[in-house]
Structures are given as structure tokens and as C-alpha cells.
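Residues pack. Consider this:
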Amino acid sequence: MDRTQGQAEPVEQPTAASAPPAAASEAAGPAASGSAPAPVARIVTLTAGDFTLTVNPVDGSEIEPRRPGTGAAVPVKRDAADRSARDAAARPPVLPGPAAPAPPLLAREEERERLVRLLGRGRSVRLTGPAGSGRSALLDAVAADCTGLAPDGVVRLSGYGHQQPGELLHALYAAVYQASAERPERTQLLARVRDIGAIVLLDDLEMGGTALDELLRATPECAYLLAATPDTRAPSDDSHLEEVFLGGLGRADCVELLEAGTRRPLTEEETAWAGDLRFASEGLPLRFVQAAALLRQRDERNLSCTEDDDDEPGVFEERPRDAAFVALPTLAEGAAPAELLASRVSESARAALRIACALGGEMPHHAHLPALVGETHADAAVAELLGCGLLTPVGTRYRLAAGVARQLEEAGFGDTAAEEARTAARHYAWWTGHASVTPERVASEADAVLAALAGADVVAAVLLARTAAPAFAASRHWEAWERVLRSGAEAARKAGEVAEQAYFHHELGVLALCEGRLDRARAELEASIGLKGALADKRGTVAGRRALALVTDREKAGVEVSPPLRLEPPAAASEAVTTAVPAVRAPKTAPKTAPAAPVAAVTAVTPVVPVIGRAAAPTTLSEVFEEAFPLDPKPAAVAAPAVPAPVRAAQPRRKPVLLAAAGALTVVVLGTVVSLAMSGSDSGTPADGVGPAVSSTPTAGTTGGAGVPGTGGNDPAPDPGTTAPDASDPAAPEPGLSPDPNQSSRAPSRKPSTGPTPPSRTPSTTNPTPPSTPTSPDPKPTPSTDPTTQAPPTTPPPTTGPVGSPSST
């Protein structure tokens, strides 16, 4: 398809695997006939920083550390001959057919001289003008005047689609140095571009601010001429760029530009029309290039050419030879002429416009149009559209001019965009995978390939991304490589192609490793290994694990990476308990026999209760799960008795916690009723006037144990704020009256004793639990008197139990 018609087809096409790099770079494109050689795998080895990258289109790229002494030699700068070839390659391709005369550069002499003067002094300039103001034509003129001013010559770059300076620095490095199989890492790149002294003409600038400052600081020996539109982000105040603004043309200049385009003088009517058009379009040169094309088409339709007046209509004449008069276009048609111009061009040109609308304004290389359009001579459509002002050069390719895509879509040229994008994607999938197409040629069509990939269906997108990704990797155009891989991974996910999805994730991990993004490399490689493991792809799994091992080695070497999530233990237990669990203090009236050590032990072993409202963000995975799923505090099994937390007043019936047997026994002994009360409010009083009998069984009012006697110990304890009535209280109820329903029906013993009896210390058969509010018995006995009978003074004073102890019987 890339061969010129009439050229003999070669017998054999050299491949990259069997031919040297020089021969591979000169290999022609895929042949249109079926006699072309079958595509074979192109395996390319590159040097990327400290790694050796082997691009394998079949099994995926392989990366390994660069062996000492095997890296590329120190690159050298290009000489004058190489710079001339480089400048020719940076221009748009030469179109077939006779060369059309370029529009003259009018009313730009002052700006031209100023730009050359500033660049000669080493100053960087920002040339600002609206789309269609002739910025690219002015850059061509300045490039011709600045030849020989800088040691490294003039370098032309395109900033279209670049928001960051990384790819621009790599393009500058490749334009000045001879390094065809090396892509240096960032440190090496910055060290080498710092020594470049050239005048850099950067057209279609799209970045500003800190990104532009980084580009200027990285190349202090270069003088830049940056062409941008007014809506581009402005540079920072520290950039120290000179500003040059381009405006519209004057009335006389507009008329002169129209006469140069029509190659004849204008009539009075056309001159007046040009004046009105100049007012409507603000004198933009692009509008008058398009207006000149409209006048040429009008002359052809009106048969006003002198050579047509003498010639008879031919038999094979394509255009009509009727004498229908075509009037001047209206002012609206002159301001937006895309629809009218497209209606008067050839059918091949209109088909090319439909393809460009489907690809987002990108015009494929003219060698692809015969296959895309389906016509042999469709490659001449690019020259026809360029002469009409519908195309404009952007770097090494052509795009639809400013505003043309919107006008064509309104005219219906975008109705078949889906079908055109699908056709372009299938064509590029075949072309990029052909062995005769070099990676450099694929890189020159990067924007058209990416546009076709974005508009294709998932099946065609996966196929195109699979074949184009290795070519972009081998051409060192890694920004396009990453975009293709991400688009391919998304298309493979939608199509359900697990094997292709694993391939794209592996390539993304290798790319991130080459660029030093270790966290991204680990994530992509682990995803690829998981998918390949599900497919039982042992060879792919081994390649992924090798790359993952390199990521681990780079992390251990101290490379700056984003900290991964690590499972770390929480804070110290004592600190956490202090903030989550209130401390339990022993009462002041505790007896000397009460153990005080278990309090400190409980504080040390109480489980940590997570604090939900933490001020700082969680840093470990365990803290994240604690916030999402808070855990209830659970007691730990310890040897020391544990004291439960105090119960709030709003919870009178909270189930107590069972404690260890040894600690419970100690609390029962200390909490058993030891009261020596006097005679209670019973009907009978001892005749001998001896002291009251001692009850051996605690009653419902007992709070010395955790439970109620006669039960299993699981009944709730009374409210800590209330106490049992004392026997000496006149308003106390009779102990023999209605007992608590939660207690046992067995009545307490009421038989009086004949003399003073020592207090009973028989332990309860149950396993009581200490109250929620810890209390201790009072060491000092308090006499208890009966409201009806007074004990003799000779009787020893009885002792009472702790607050809430059972009354005397």
C-alpha cells in the first residue's frame, strides 16, 4: 500500500528478525496483493535505564537487569547531515501529484524580525495567536532564518496532545542524539538534555504553568519559540518568557491573499465581499485561504476560465459543462465554508473527510486512503483537501483545520462514524502487525491508531491494541504505548478475553517498572499473575514473577515508593485500656484483708476496645477493619479476679460476668453475712433477754454476693444505688412477708438462741458474683435495736453486715 503505483514488487521483504536495523527501517509497508510475506514476530531489545527490555509480541515483554558492559555506548550528537535528514523527517509527508503553491506570508515581517532577534540572544518567546492566524507558517519562516545560530541547529517539535514535559524531553533527546536502541531513565535524560544547545520550535503548545517551567529548567541552553492559542494555560511568572501576539490581517492584505489564491485579480463585487468577510472573521488568514478555494470552485462552475471558452466539452468530462451561473457565497458560507467546500470536492475527498470525522479530526496517511476508501487514486484526496484549507499540518501529519470538524458533523459527515472507526481499526490492526512495517512508521501514525482504537468495538479494539502495543514499545513512544495498553485492558475486560487482559496488565507492569513507578508495577504484575494462574499459563506466570522479583529488589534498594499497607500491631495495651476502659479504684472503707493487687492486673490484661472516633486517619489494615467492624470487649481468662466495670443507672438489670472460681470464693467469704443483730421485728422476744439469733441464710436484701441465694447465680443484682432495709428501721417490712419472686421459696431460720452466738460463716452453695459497685463490709459493728424491745446493757453489741446485708430474723 505504501509503494507507488507502477513500482515493481520486491521478491522478498526483509524482517526485523533476519535483517539489520538499517534494512528493517527501510522496509516497505504491507503489500496490497496476496503475495506479501506472512507476518512474523518482531522481537526488539532495548536499553531502558538499568534494565534490558525485550519486546516480544507473542509472549509478552521480558525485563531483566542490565549486565555490566552490555549497555549502549555513550550517545553522540548528530552531525550536519543527520540534522538535515532529521529536519526533513519532522515535516509533514510530501503529497502525490503536483505541488500546490504555498500561501504567502503577509503582514508578518515585524513579528518575524523580532522573533529572530530574541532567539538569537538566547531568549525564549511565546507566540500567541488564535487558531488560523498563521502561527505554523510564521514558524517555518523563523526556522529558515535561524539556521546556524545554535550549535545543535533548529529542532521542530509538536506539542499537540502533550500535557507533561516527559515525552517532549525524550523527543528532543532523540532529535539531537544518535541513540536508536536506548530510552534513558529520568536522571540520565535530564543530564543529557541539559547539554543541548538548540533553537526549539514547539508548535501547538498545550501545557503551561509548572509543567512548562519544568521543560524550560531541564534545558537551560535552549531557546524556545512556543506557539500557542489564547486559551492555553499561561506560563508562571518565573518563566521570564517574551510574549508576541498575532492578530488578523488588514483589508488590503486580505484582498492580496485572495488574489494569490485565485491567481487572478478580484472584481469590485468580490472585493466588497472580501471586506465584509474580513470584518466577520477578524482577518484570520485561514478564512481567506478557504474563501479563495470557494472562488476557484465558483470559477470552475461558471466556466469563466479562458481555456474553457475555446475548448469543446469532452466525452469523458467529469464536471458539468452547463452555463448555470453560481453566485458569490453568502457571508455565513464564507465564515463557515466547510460544508460548501466539501460538497464541491471529489467523492474520494468526501470519503476521506468522513474518515477524519470518525477519527476525531485525524487524517490518516495518504498511503492508507486507498485501502480505507476503496479507491485506487484516493491518496490524491489529501492534497485536494489541503488546497481547500480544510486540513492543516500538525507535526508529521495532517488534521482537520480549526472548526472544520464541527461544521462537517453538523452537515451529516459524522453519521457513519462508528462504521468508519471500525473499518479503520481493522485496517490498522493488520497494518501494525505486518512484519514489513517498522516501529517508527507505526509511531508516526500514533494519533490515528489511538483514535481508531477509541471508536472501535471491543473485539476490534482488543485486536488492534494487541498488535500496536509492541510496535509503540519498540519505537520508544511510551506515552502512546501506555494509552494503547490501558485501552486494550478495558476492551479485553468488556469482551471477556482473560488471556488478553493478563497480557495488557503484564505490559503495564513492565512499563511502570521501567519508569520507576514501583507501586503501580507491583499492582499490575500481581493482577497479571493472578489472571495467568487462573488460565494455568505457567510460562506467563514465571515471566510475571521474574518482573515482580525485580520490583521487590528495587524496593529493598531504597527506591522511593509509596508506602504499602502493612499489618502492624496496634498501640500498647496499657495505653489503649487507659483511653477505652475507666480505671477501677478500691473503696476507702475496704478491709485490710481485701486484695488490692488484682486491680492493677485487670487494667493490664483488659482487652482493647477500639476507639471509633479517632482523630488521625488509620495507617494499618487492622485499624481500618476496627473502624468498619467494631468488636465488643471480651474478658480474658486470667488467674487474678477481674472486677467488672461499674454499671450505669440506666441499666438496672445487666447480666453479671462470671469470674474465676478462686476469686469468686474469696469474694463470697468476705461477703457472707456476719451480722449479729438483735431481736428483729418478730412477734416473740427471747425470754432470757439474750441477743438476737443469727441468720445462717442470706435473704433477698443481701448484696454481698453477685446472685440471690437459692438460685443458679444468674439473677440480676439489685440496683447499686439502693440498699436493703436494716433491721433497726421502723419502716422496714416484716422479713416473713412476701419474698422476692426471684428468690427461693425456702423461709429463713427464725429460732432464737439462748445466748450470744458467734456469727455464722457458712459459705453459700451458689457461686455468687460481686456487685457491679464494689463495696466492702464495715470493720466497725453498728448496734441494731428493735423498736419494741430494748436489749439489756449487759448484752454485747451486735455487729451488722455490709450495707445491704440481710436483716436479723
